[in-house]
Amino acid sequence: MDFNVLSAARYSLRKFSTRPVEPEKLALILEAGRNAPTAHNNQPQRIFVLQSARALEKVLDCMGGRFVSPVMLAVAYDPAVSWKRETDGKEHGEIDAAIAATQMMLQAADLGLGTTYVGMFEPEKLLAAFPEMAGTVPIALLPLGYPAEGAHPSRLHADRIPLEEMVKHL
Prior knowledge:
About 35% of the residues lie in helices and about 15% in strands. By secondary structure, the protein is an alpha+beta fold.
């Protein structure tokens, strides 16, 4: 798909079907996250695939029970390997992980799947529920799956401020 079409068409899916995500499509999505550029190529992004009924139940409890999907990707970063800017110590792990999440969301859309970037969850509760995530900083949950019948973008999806308001040529 043409990138401009893809980036404009991709939307935050909030209603998922129960259709399973094919392993080969999931592998392509995870590869997109692995290929994401990172500061100094430190690659601190960590992606946890939650697919079992028990894992999905536990993660829903950490986010208030929203966004029931066949797969949930927990996106985090490892602060032990992330780059910190020398001048002020600015942590770039969250930025790197967000870039990986973006690439995975776009790859999912290109494959006919939907996602939404969920920042509304309890990180401490997530880390307690999944000890495998110890040592990481979770930044987002990405519900992943096929759109349910009747799913559509929110009414605000196409609302964008004018480019002239967003961009300043200096």
